[in-house]
Write a structure and sequence with these properties.
globular; 20% strand; glycerate kinase, domain 1; 460 residues; six-stranded parallel sheet; six-stranded mixed sheet; 17 helices; alpha/beta; single chain; Rossmann fold
């Protein structure tokens, strides 16, 4: 690696980080990920090496949902083609195919393709209607049918089919409470699985007795199958009691809608059957595999950083915790590299993946990645040669069009020069507007993928 002399102009490290981000996103392109997992030779469909004889299959039914649902479905259609009997996939508003991509898929598929644009992170009626259409498409399946399911991040909200006695409004109110509480995605999904007819193995139950193959693009730390999109095709390792514990932990038991509380209490008392557990025979004909995940994106980011001339290291893909607290750790690592050259000598880039949380106390606008960036700007203030960048791989961090932020040791002072108080914006959970005004937002637009978040810590 060539060293830089004092006469050399300093590289634009913000632009370098943007190139690293682009490379990471390209590595988890959902269409490519699916095509890497499935192929067809004549009448034999191979899924992760396992053969399925299409001559013995009457119908191939495609269902699913998530922010990457459209390109994943397109890839399935490209392989299965003339054998596709029906297709219903829920996607986030704005996350469907381009006109050219839709035309290509229409030529490849032998049936009408329905993409239902639904609400996220709070489910809406469109998501419920799409889930009903999926359930309808599985009515009357036999053991000679094959159900293919594409699942990606956001699926928990986008595929919403409330259990008996639960209304969409109840789910919406619960989701808002959980989002504002600081609950992790694992905890949120523990509750949602016990209020749904499709989550927590429910889709596997609906697909019986057909063969079922689920292709997953993971947005959950560690890739636990029963947490990704609330595990619609796999055994559920959580219980009604676990769901009740989550509400108690965040002091929500008496704040959730009454139908939610009644159902969870009935489940804990044994009056309602729990979600299907490991060993249940409904999973005997189910194959579930992860085709893309955060570790793939993070590894590609490390590789790209090296190509950009930076020493690079993957710290972890299990990053969790309150965003503003994680920001302090990120800033500390950047300072350490400046002062001691540890854990890497400059120029250097540390990469971490995972998903932080935000406990909302203010009335502002933002997301966990933007809040982490703003908090890091305060922690880095006055330091030269440091930079922290964050990225939501789906392109939308929280309920915003921002994907994250890129800040350095001058960011806080830059905000004050504009008459802004960065600490006040942080207290109000208003990271979006602060970063927007300083020009430090990361805007990617919809990426049609979703594999958790990425954090970049640079010292130069």
């Amino acid at each position: 690696m060539a060293s830089q002399t004092s006469e050399d102009p300093l590289p634009d490290y913000r632009e370098i980080v943007r190139r690293i981000m682009a490379a990471a996103l390209d590595a988890v392109d959902p269409e490519r990920a699916v095509l890497n997992a499935i192929r067809r030779e004549g009448d034999t469909l191979y899924i992760s090496g396992r053969p399925y004889d299409l001559a013995e299959i009457d119908r191939v039914i495609l269902v699913g949902g998530g922010k990457a649902g459209a390109p994943m479905a397109k890839a399935v259609a490209a392989v299965v083609g003339d054998r596709l009997h029906s297709c219903v996939v829920n996607v986030k508003d704005g996350y469907t195919l381009s006109k050219q991509q839709a035309a290509e898929m229409a030529e490849q598929a032998s049936c009408p393709v329905r993409f239902i644009e639904a609400g996220h992170p709070t489910p809406n009626e469109a998501g419920v209607e799409g889930a009903r259409l999926m359930a309808d498409s599985l009515q009357g399946v036999t053991d000679r049918d094959l159900v293919l399911c594409v699942i990606s991040g956001g699926g928990s909200a986008l595929i919403s089919l409330p259990a008996e006695g639960i209304a969409l409004g109840d789910i919406q109110a619960l989701t808002d409470l959980l989002l504002r509480s600081g609950a992790t995605i694992n905890e949120m999904n523990t509750v949602r699985k016990h209020l749904s007819a499709i989550k927590g193995g429910g889709l596997a139950r609906l697909a019986q007795p057909a063969r079922l193959v689920a292709l997953l693009l993971s947005d959950v730390v560690g890739n636990p199958l029963d947490v990704i999109a609330s595990g619609p095709t796999v055994p559920d390792t959580t219980t009604f009691a676990d769901a009740g514990d989550v509400l108690a932990k965040y002091d929500l038991t008496d704040r959730v809608p009454e139908p939610v509380r009644r159902r969870l209490q009935a489940g804990m008392a044994g009056r309602i059957a729990d979600t299907p557990k490991p060993g249940d025979p409904i999973f005997d004909r189910v194959q579930t595999l992860v085709v893309g995940s955060n570790d793939i994106a993070a590894a590609r980011a490390v590789e790209q950083a090296r190509q950009e001339g930076l020493h690079s290291l993957l710290l972890t893909t299990y990053l969790e915790g309150e965003a503003r607290e994680v920001a302090k750790v990120a800033a500390a690592l950047a300072k350490e590299m400046v002062m001691s050259g540890q854990p890497l000598a400059r120029p250097a880039c540390l990469v971490a993946g995972g998903e932080t949380t935000v406990t909302i106390r203010g009335e502002g606008k933002g997301g966990r990645n933007q809040e982490l960036a703003l908090a890091a700007a305060l922690a880095l203030e006055g330091w030269d040669g440091v930079l922290v960048a964050t990225l939501a791989t789906d392109g939308t961090d929280g309920p915003t069009d921002g994907a994250g932020g890129i800040v350095d040791g001058d960011s806080a002072a830059r905000a004050r020069d504009l008459g802004l108080d960065p600490a006040a914006y942080l207290r109000n959970n208003d990271s979006y507007h602060l970063l927007q005004k300083t020009g430090e937002l990361v805007i990617t637009g919809p990426t049609n993928t979703n594999v958790n978040d990425l954090l970049f810590i640079v010292a130069y």
